[in-house]
Write a structure and sequence with these properties.
single chain, 167 residues, alpha/beta, Rossmann fold, four-stranded parallel β-sheet, 8 helices, elongated
Length: 167
């Protein structure tokens, strides 16, 4: 009897020393063969612990980039190169860089749903579950640039650079 596609993938994971990390929004068939299913934070935390040589990331660009940042010596594969995130895509690096250069005395905090280039321009990166803690960790006398989706703005004592406010 011929092995099923699922069986072939499971065997290929073993043969290649690979893991599959999948976001919650993936199809149930993908989630079923994944080694870990979670949100952006959970996937980042799991990526940091991976022992396998290959990480196949069933998610979007910024998630795979984050896995690569956390695992520079591992191969990270993103099966769909067109898998994007509207928030990450809404912040062009050149515009953001110009914005933060105009405010050199600010600490830059960005939401995890951003490109590796934006993360590299940031002092801190947060998620929805730790945004308040991260923002509150900055001394009150230091101004903050905070790139974040609008629903996280309630934590803002800061200068905002967001997808709905042109930096």
């Amino acid at each position: 009897m011929m092995p099923t596609v699922k069986e072939k993938i499971i065997q290929l994971k073993k043969d290649k020393n690979a893991v599959i990390l999948a976001h919650y929004y993936q199809e149930p068939d993908i989630q079923e063969i994944a080694d870990y299913v979670g949100d952006s934070l959970g996937l980042s935390q799991e990526a940091a612990k991976v022992d396998a040589a290959i990480i196949l990331f069933a998610g979007v660009h910024f998630m795979a980039e984050t896995a690569k940042i956390l695992n520079p010596n591992k191969k990270v594969i993103l099966p769909d190169l067109n898998a994007g995130c509207s928030l990450a895509d809404s912040c062009p690096t050149a515009i953001f860089k110009k914005f933060i250069e105009a405010h050199p005395d600010h600490i830059v905090i960005t939401y995890i749903n951003c490109s590796a280039e934006i993360k590299a321009l940031s002092h801190l990166v947060c998620t929805s579950s730790n945004a308040e803690k991260i923002v509150n960790s900055v001394p009150t006398n230091i101004p903050i640039i905070y790139f974040t989706p609008s629903f996280l703005r309630k934590y803002s004592k800061i200068l905002l650079a967001s997808s709905s406010a042109n930096p």
